[in-house]
Amino acid sequence: MFAREGYFIIAGAVVLGLLIGSGALWFDPWLWRAPFLLVGAGVIAFTLYFFRDPDRSAPAEAREGRAFVAPADGKIVEIVEEEEPLYLEGPSTRISIFLSPLNVHVNRVPANGVIEYVRYVPGDYLVAWHPKASEKNERSEIGMEHESGTRILFKQIAGAVARRIEYHVEEGDSVVAGERFGIVKFGSRMDVHVPPHIEVNADVGDRTTAGETVLGQLPDAAGVVSGASLSDSTPAPETNA
Fold it and tell me: What DSSP string describes 69-105?
């Protein structure tokens, strides 16, 4: 499968690759034709490779609401404690994932819940691993409330090469862990913010697979609901008229 956001670019790359390849016909010696043919084929092959969109299946613990998964393929470059004023509005644990141009760039929702906050922010194009990239660069900011009431904020962040962020969620959307929600074209970064009490199982240097790699545990929504139901079902004490 290929990401739908890449269809237009794939079509353009195929046309460009064919034009470059056909340029080889102007040269008689095969020694000169070969480089043109290789470049044309390379343009098409790289574009198809970049926009690949393999099927993914979130692990059972994420589907059942007990964990959150990585929203992007790549490498974890930072796990830090910091203030998050936009959506969590308080202290948070930030997990930053760097995507190289060779990673799958389709992004996936980290957990079950409802989208409550969506904002696009134009900005700079610092290298994606720069400490200020999450504040200065072009980015999307998407906040969701997990089934347990836990808030999670995740950001698509453009890098020095990535110049196009796309996402397909809106406030009020119900989403599930591992669901596709967008793409950042070419090298980029993804940040995930969770409250500091949430257990994070990942470490700096870990490789992640979007929609499959568990980053941490979440409160059991079923337990919360179950507890509330038991409380609600307790009969009220009898009173004398």
Answer: E-SSSEEEEEEEEEEETTTT-EEEEEEEEEE-TTS--
